[in-house]
Amino acid sequence: MLMIALTLTLGAGLLGQPAALTTVAAACAPAIRASTTTLATTNARVSAVRVVVQADTTARPANLLRSVRVTSSSNAVVIVQGQRVTLPTTVTPATGSQSLTFDVRQQATDRSFEAYFVSTDSCGDVPSFAGAGTGPSSGSGAGDAPVEPTPGIQPSPLPSASASPTPIRTPTTPPSQTATPTPTGSATPTVMASPIGTPIQTVTPSPSVPAGGYVTRSGTQFLLSGAPFEFVGANMYNAAGDPTIYECGPWMSNPDTELDAWFAQARADFGGRVIRFWAYQRYTNGGTDWRALDRVMRLAAAHDLKVLPVLENQWGDCSDEAYKDANWYAGGYRQPYGQYAISYDAYVRRVVERYRDEPAIFGWMLMNEAESRVVSGPSVPDALFTFARDMSALVKSIDANHLVTLGVIGGGQPGVDGTDYERLHQLSTIDFATFHDYGHNDQALPGAPVRVQAPVQTALYGLDQQWAWSQSEYRSNQANAWEEFTWTIPGGAQPFRQIGLAVYGSFTGAVYVDQVRIGDRTYSFEDGTLQGWQTAAAAVSLSPTAGRVYDGARSLKLTFNQVTGLAQVWVPPIATDGAATTVSVRIYVETPGTPLPYNTLAVAMYKAATWLNKPVIVGEAGMTACGSWNGSQAETAETRAAKMRAKMQAFFGNGGAGYLVWAWEPNNACNFAFGPGDPLNAVLRAQAGALAPPQMTAQR
After folding, report:
1. Which residues contact 610 (CB under 8 A, 6 or more apart)?
2. CA 33 – CA 358 distance, rounded (Å)
3. Among 645, 666, 648, which residue's Cα sits nearest to residue 657?
4. Fewer CB atoms inside 10 A, N or C side of the chain?
């Protein structure tokens, strides 16, 4: 067996230069030769080399390669036979192969890359070694000439951070009431370079220079570099627009320059740290042309931004132009759809595999505003749930670095209504919850204060000597909170037979009663007895407890052992109890309850913090300026800024983790858009400063 050990030092001194390789003969004759050529890249911080390993057939025409063992002490990205490999690895060439080609890409730093190559004909298993020089090559040797750039990997100059955008056409079509304020595909000129699904040659990029590493989470917080990370930012939905591929929204004629300027303004004007954008199939030509997304990642890293790619749209705008119904979520996403040549899940696999090591990505959002129903028919929650479960698991199986979320409005849409919201976000493969805040301009935190309702109602009652029944109105109980109920007996024949508490509802669990006052006497249960309280309901047992009290050391615990409709607990009255006697009681119902009002931002935040223990972000929030659209409440730029300030302060003050405004555009400040010079920039910048997140300076 003959082996070559190849060491490549891809450093700044070698950028753009081929590595010098020599082949040293074994005792009989050389059996393997290795050569390298430099590849042009789109990122000056990345060096790339193509390595060709060839069995020497000069002396022995039958000499073949058997295997290639590849390992590295650096963070190199290695592409073998068109596939990215995880190091260390052993690659077996096709049977009868006499050569193997692979690409090495890594940061342009002084780190080495090693590979070991094994052939079948080894001249008695005498090893032969080839080494790479660490300085510039003389360029001699047939294999040492630079490779001509190929389409999709040609170098481009790094844009200047001070570049200003050229005039851009912006859409004026406002959103529908039920969907995100996303411009329709016809609102802006759209250019398709080639039919979706047509391959364009590209090279898998190595990660951009990290912007503080990967975002993780701990409970309800995001973490960056181990420190809490709260953020404000904006939606720039057409950040991946490219006139040679596809655009939908603010037009860019020279995206290298213009997107660079957009990101620079995001940091300077409003302190943005996270940008949400569309990463649909149309922006990548069906997962075959990655130039636009590569640009987003590269420029985001250059400006210390994190980006949140959204992988498909519920509404079809800027994508396949079709609403996603329950049939799509039930399995249609596994088939090609619309004008796309590949299925949604195949596309997700491609994009996640490509960018799984990209630290500029904040996380993956599977959908924009997902919902599930039969067209013009009922909600189908199970279809959306299985989709979220299976697709989030797929992403996690490929990418262990990034967070994942589904992407919903959260306001009671089909499949996301009520308990379906927490069911979706309870999935272990969903890392954070989302909500979109529209239409509540004058409510800083829509739905606040949250009332968590228990599944029981209680009333105070009396039963007089003639068995006549009187009671207070039934009152809905809060969950997990002490409440005081008071009632005055209206009259009745004395002496009364019972004075007590009626509990009605479908409930298993515990109700605690404390500090019961009837007239001038108090039942506090401090002596460890029931103090005469009793029940005839088989489903309820009574016991004094020290487990939960309103005052003192003990209370009375009512344990509901099975679901019951109505149960009564009472104490025998004294002779003077009757008309005008005041009865009061402290009650605590121990149950998760139902937070109200339904489908509001405040309730979504409550569920995320109390039940899910996960962060929640506002993925979109907006108000219309310059007039009303489709009945929306009209604001001036100044009133919008003031109301958005109140919203962000309430959101972060109640434990929110991230807030993204809809939507930043370079030359538009009307409808839902805001841009340069809008007073909302100063509000966002002040909020960003108040959050004081960890620095995202690139780690080199």
Report:
1. none
2. 34
3. 648
4. C
**Residue 78 pLDDT level (bands cut at 50, 70, 90):** low
pLDDT score for 563: 74
Least confident of 202-216, 220-234, 336-350: 202-216
Q: How far is the C-alpha of 524 from the C-alpha of 161, rounded, in Å? A: 71
Distance separating alpha carbons of residues 694 and 304, to the nearest angstrom:
12
DSSP string, 501-539: EEEEES--EEEEEEEEEETTEEE--TTSS-TT-EE--TT
Identify the band that residue 692 occupies on the pLDDT scale cut at 50, 70 and 90. low
Q: Buried b vs exposed e over 594-611: b needs ≥16 C-beta within 10 Å?
A: ebbeebbbbbbbbbbbbe
Q: Can you give the pTM of this predicted structure?
A: 0.69
Distance CA 638, CA 624 (A): 12
- Which SS3 state, helix, strand or coil, does residue 275 take? strand
Of 429, 415, 425, give the one whose Cα is nearest residue 329.
Answer: 415
Torsion of CA 438, 385, 432, 264, to 10 degrees: -60
Helix (H/G/I), strand (E/B), else coil: 357: coil
Q: Please give the share of the chain, as a percent, with pLDDT higher than 90.
A: 64
* CA 5 – CA 527 distance, rounded (Å): 84
Bridge partners, 624 (sequence order): 634
- Residues, the chain: 700
Mean pLDDT over all residues of the chain?
80
Both tokens of 508, joined, read 């298993």
Cβ(36)–Cβ(143) below 8 Å: yes
Tell me 373's DSSP state: B
Integer CA distances (angstroms), 45 to 105, 204, 205, 283, 402, in order: 10, 15, 11, 25, 23
**255-269, 479-493, 679-693: range with lowest mean pLDDT:** 679-693
What separation, in Å, do the N-terminal and C-terminal C-alpha atoms of the chain show?
A: 40
Q: Which of 112, 116, 118 is nearest to 132 (CA)?
A: 112
129, 118 contact by CB (below 8 A)? no
Question: Residue 118 to residues 68, 100, 353, 571: CA-CA distances in angstroms?
Answer: 6, 11, 29, 90
CA 284, 360, 149 angle in degrees (round to 5)? 50
Alpha helices, DSSP H, located in 246-308: 255-270, 291-302
Query: Ranked by mean pLDDT, which of 149-158, 305-314, 504-513 comes out on top?
Result: 305-314
* Alpha-carbon span 306 to 695, nearest angstrom: 12
User: What tokens does 604 get?
Assistant: 């979504």
Residue in 263, 357, 361, 267 with CA at minimum distance from that of residue 311: 361
Question: Tell me, what's the pLDDT at 79?
Answer: 63
Which of 23-32, 413-422, 691-700 shows the lowest per-residue confidence on average (mean pLDDT)?
A: 23-32
CB–CB of 233/266 below 8 Å? yes
Q: How far is CA 154 from the centre of its chain?
A: 32
At 224, the amino acid letter reads L
Number of H helices, E strands in the chain: 9, 35
* Two structure tokens written together for 495: 């002496």
Q: For residues 541 and 534, what is the distance between their CA atoms, to the nearest angstrom?
A: 9
Tokens 């990463």 found at: 279
